[in-house]
TrEMBL record:
PANTHER family: DUF742 DOMAIN-CONTAINING PROTEIN (PTHR36221:SF1). It comes from the Bacteria. Pfam families: DUF742 (PF05331). This is DUF742 domain-containing protein. InterPro entries: DUF742 (IPR007995). Residues 1-24 are annotated as: Disordered.
Length: 128
Protein backbone atom coordinates (compact mmCIF):
# COMPACT_ATOMS: atom_id res chain seq x y z
CA UNK A 1 0.00 0.00 0.00
CA UNK A 2 1.12 3.51 -0.69
CA UNK A 3 0.19 6.75 1.05
CA UNK A 4 -0.23 8.64 -2.22
CA UNK A 5 -3.73 9.87 -3.08
CA UNK A 6 -5.31 8.40 -6.14
CA UNK A 7 -4.56 10.42 -9.23
CA UNK A 8 -7.51 12.06 -10.94
CA UNK A 9 -7.55 11.71 -14.67
CA UNK A 10 -7.49 14.97 -16.59
CA UNK A 11 -10.37 16.00 -18.80
CA UNK A 12 -10.60 13.86 -21.86
CA UNK A 13 -11.63 15.00 -25.30
CA UNK A 14 -15.28 14.18 -24.56
CA UNK A 15 -15.34 16.30 -21.38
CA UNK A 16 -15.83 20.03 -21.67
CA UNK A 17 -15.32 22.91 -19.29
CA UNK A 18 -18.51 23.62 -17.35
CA UNK A 19 -17.49 26.92 -15.78
CA UNK A 20 -17.06 30.08 -17.82
CA UNK A 21 -13.51 31.24 -18.40
CA UNK A 22 -14.37 34.87 -17.62
CA UNK A 23 -15.67 35.42 -14.11
CA UNK A 24 -18.70 37.69 -13.52
CA UNK A 25 -16.72 40.26 -11.52
CA UNK A 26 -14.44 40.73 -14.52
CA UNK A 27 -17.42 41.33 -16.81
CA UNK A 28 -18.82 44.02 -14.49
CA UNK A 29 -15.34 45.46 -13.82
CA UNK A 30 -15.69 44.67 -10.12
CA UNK A 31 -19.04 46.44 -9.70
CA UNK A 32 -21.65 44.55 -7.72
CA UNK A 33 -24.38 47.16 -8.14
CA UNK A 34 -25.31 50.25 -10.08
CA UNK A 35 -25.73 52.70 -7.22
CA UNK A 36 -29.42 52.91 -8.07
CA UNK A 37 -32.31 50.58 -7.39
CA UNK A 38 -31.65 47.24 -9.18
CA UNK A 39 -33.84 46.53 -12.18
CA UNK A 40 -36.68 44.12 -11.45
CA UNK A 41 -36.28 40.87 -13.38
CA UNK A 42 -39.57 41.43 -15.20
CA UNK A 43 -38.54 44.86 -16.55
CA UNK A 44 -38.72 44.84 -20.35
CA UNK A 45 -35.64 45.97 -22.30
CA UNK A 46 -35.28 47.03 -25.93
CA UNK A 47 -32.29 48.35 -27.86
CA UNK A 48 -32.58 51.82 -29.37
CA UNK A 49 -31.80 52.62 -32.98
CA UNK A 50 -28.50 54.24 -32.01
CA UNK A 51 -25.33 52.84 -33.56
CA UNK A 52 -23.41 50.49 -31.30
CA UNK A 53 -19.97 51.85 -30.40
CA UNK A 54 -17.18 49.41 -31.24
CA UNK A 55 -15.56 50.07 -27.85
CA UNK A 56 -18.24 48.16 -25.92
CA UNK A 57 -17.48 44.87 -24.19
CA UNK A 58 -18.61 41.69 -25.96
CA UNK A 59 -21.34 41.20 -23.33
CA UNK A 60 -22.79 44.64 -24.08
CA UNK A 61 -22.86 43.76 -27.78
CA UNK A 62 -24.57 40.45 -27.03
CA UNK A 63 -27.26 42.24 -25.00
CA UNK A 64 -27.86 44.77 -27.78
CA UNK A 65 -28.17 42.00 -30.39
CA UNK A 66 -30.63 40.06 -28.20
CA UNK A 67 -32.77 43.09 -27.35
CA UNK A 68 -33.97 43.98 -30.86
CA UNK A 69 -37.45 43.20 -29.52
CA UNK A 70 -38.77 43.41 -25.97
CA UNK A 71 -37.09 41.01 -23.55
CA UNK A 72 -37.22 40.88 -19.78
CA UNK A 73 -34.09 41.24 -17.66
CA UNK A 74 -34.45 37.56 -16.69
CA UNK A 75 -34.62 36.50 -20.35
CA UNK A 76 -31.53 38.53 -21.21
CA UNK A 77 -29.69 36.85 -18.33
CA UNK A 78 -30.77 33.42 -19.58
CA UNK A 79 -29.67 34.13 -23.16
CA UNK A 80 -26.30 35.41 -21.99
CA UNK A 81 -25.80 32.61 -19.47
CA UNK A 82 -24.96 35.17 -16.78
CA UNK A 83 -26.48 35.79 -13.35
CA UNK A 84 -29.25 38.43 -13.36
CA UNK A 85 -27.17 40.64 -11.04
CA UNK A 86 -24.42 40.84 -13.70
CA UNK A 87 -26.95 41.61 -16.43
CA UNK A 88 -28.49 44.34 -14.26
CA UNK A 89 -25.11 46.10 -14.03
CA UNK A 90 -24.53 45.79 -17.79
CA UNK A 91 -28.05 47.02 -18.58
CA UNK A 92 -27.56 50.02 -16.28
CA UNK A 93 -24.48 50.91 -18.36
CA UNK A 94 -26.46 50.65 -21.60
CA UNK A 95 -29.29 52.78 -20.17
CA UNK A 96 -26.79 55.45 -19.09
CA UNK A 97 -25.31 55.46 -22.61
CA UNK A 98 -28.76 55.72 -24.23
CA UNK A 99 -28.45 52.39 -26.05
CA UNK A 100 -31.44 50.64 -24.44
CA UNK A 101 -34.82 51.76 -23.17
CA UNK A 102 -36.69 50.19 -20.29
CA UNK A 103 -40.36 49.51 -19.79
CA UNK A 104 -40.97 49.06 -16.06
CA UNK A 105 -43.20 46.21 -14.95
CA UNK A 106 -46.89 46.94 -14.58
CA UNK A 107 -47.71 47.27 -10.88
CA UNK A 108 -50.20 44.78 -9.50
CA UNK A 109 -53.78 45.99 -9.38
CA UNK A 110 -55.05 47.38 -6.12
CA UNK A 111 -57.05 44.48 -4.75
CA UNK A 112 -58.68 46.32 -1.87
CA UNK A 113 -61.19 48.09 -4.14
CA UNK A 114 -63.36 45.45 -5.79
CA UNK A 115 -66.50 47.57 -6.13
CA UNK A 116 -66.08 47.95 -9.91
CA UNK A 117 -65.62 44.21 -10.33
CA UNK A 118 -68.75 43.55 -8.27
CA UNK A 119 -70.75 46.00 -10.42
CA UNK A 120 -69.56 44.27 -13.59
CA UNK A 121 -70.39 40.85 -12.16
CA UNK A 122 -73.82 42.07 -11.04
CA UNK A 123 -74.48 43.52 -14.52
CA UNK A 124 -73.45 40.27 -16.21
CA UNK A 125 -75.62 38.20 -13.89
CA UNK A 126 -78.66 40.33 -14.78
CA UNK A 127 -78.05 40.01 -18.53
CA UNK A 128 -77.82 36.22 -18.40
Amino acid sequence: MTDRPAERPGPGPEQQRTTPAVRPYVITQGRAGTGAEPLPWETLVMATDAAFPASLQPEHHMILRQCQGLLSVAEVAAYLGQPPSVVQVLLADLVDWGLVVLRPPIPPADRTDVTMLRKVLHGLEHRL
